[in-house]
Design brief:
Blueprint (H helix, E strand, L loop, with lengths): L2 H6 L2 H23 L1 H6 L9
């Protein structure tokens, strides 16, 4: 993105772009670690029995 187009974006648009960028990066990290590892770290509240 050029500097001129960055200045024209509103604060909300800049934050949304950063959030999307972060989300893509974290998804890529999760894929690199392996989906099974990422899901094992979260507790399943329905498996308490």
């Amino acid at each position: 993105m050029s500097e001129d187009s960055r200045k024209n974006l509103s604060r909300e648009e800049r934050l949304a772009a950063k959030l999307n960028e972060k989300l893509r990066r974290r998804k890529a990290q999760a894929r690199a670690m392996g989906d099974s590892e990422a899901t094992e770290t979260l507790p399943n509240p329905r498996s308490d029995g």
